[in-house]
Structures are given as C-alpha cells and as structure tokens.
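Figure 2 data, in text form.
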Amino acid sequence: MREAGYEGTELGRKFPKNPSQLKAALKPYGLSLASGWHSLHLLSKPYEEEEKKFLTHMQFLSEMKSQVVIVAECTHATYGSNGPHRHSADSSHKIDAPTWQRLIEGLERLAETAKQNGMRLAYHHHMGTVIQNEEEIDRLMKDTRHLFLLADTGHMAYAGIDPLPIFKKYGNRIAHIHLKDVRPQILAQAHQQGYSFEKAVREGVFTVPGDGGIHYAPLFQHLNDLGYEGWWVMEAEQDPIKANPLRYAKMGRDYIRKVANL
C-alpha cells in the first residue's frame, strides 16, 4: 500500500482485530485505518443482539481513530454465493413496508449511537443485498435523517446507476467513498448470461479507476467543489492471480493523482 502511494486502508479480513496489534502493524508504513465493513442482520436477528456486535466494532474503529463505520444489511445477501445476483431491474426481492420500517428504525438507532460517539454511520449499497439500485438508495436516503451514505462507484455502475447524479443529489450526506471501475464488456456479459455476482467479480468485472468505463473527471470535480474531506478508497476487487495487486494499485493511484490532482 505504501509503495503504491496510499495513506490508509480499510480493515482487511486477515488484519488483527486488536487495536494495539493493528496499530503496530500499520505504523511502520505510516498507514491509517480509514474504516471497516460491518455486516448487519437487522431483519433476521434481534436488534439488541445486532447493537451489541455493532458497538464492539465501532469501539474498535474508534480506538483506531476512524471516524466512519461502514454497514450493510446482509440478511439473505447473495453477493458471496454462486447463485444468481439481484439485477437492478429486478423487483422480486423488494421487501414489504413493515420489514422496510424495521430496517430504517434499526439503522437510525445505530446512526444516532454512532453520532453520540463522534462517528458517522455510512451505509454501503451493495449488489446482492436489499439496497442496491437507485430507487432503493433514494428510498433509504429519504426515510433516514442521521444515516450517511457510502458511495461506491463500482456497485452503482453494476446496478445501472450513473454515479454523478447520486453524488450531486446526496453530496452532503456522503461520508465515505469507494472508487472502483467496471469493464463494460464483462458487465454486459454478466447480465446477459446471468452470472452470479461472485462469478462476475472473478471474471474481472471490476478494476481500478481509469481502467474501465466510468468517467471520473466530473465526479472528482464535484467532490472538489463540494469540499468533501472524507476518505477516497481505491478498490479493484480482482483475482490476484490474473491481476497483480501492486501493479493495479499503482495504476489506480497514478490515475487519481493525474485526474484529481491528489
């Protein structure tokens, strides 16, 4: 990460979960912990149980000086399986009104808890979950007050969303950003052949910014105009056997430096 020119990282699955151990691992490289993903199951488990797990995760991030907690509702999530993923036009997985209200109430309670602890709760819209397309993102933002958005350009493009209007619409509520690109040819193939999300990723649907079909210059300009001060997290999500991680990490960093002057 440091060799490729980055200043921080999100929590990896193999990272130590003890703050002192993780600080010791990151310090020699001058890396900060930007945040870390937390899977919620508000729709399938008691709120109190989910809150307890959330508080443990939030405390860990707080001790690491992170200011954002990333969450996504993962009840019945399909993104990690070989089954068919949800398509943006698919309406068969929409949840009913009472279930939606349960989700909103749980997220708002957690968002308020995060706020009371000096942190922001950023919701990650994600393929294969209950919040993945534009209609669902709009509904989520409309029905919440304290919740922030994690804007992921790759997941937007995968769901058929133009990222720029989302960035413009919710700019002041975007607390965290994931920058990844999509290869249009592989995305079209994934939709046409009904790939599972995991298969699409393994086939190379995602890549680093500048190596795919997303036009980033307007996004970067808008974030600059907005005065956004949160993290930009570059992601590739590629098979490391097919795509050398360091090479692509450098490629993405060079692109952001060139286009965004950062």
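Caption note: The chain has one domain: 8-260.
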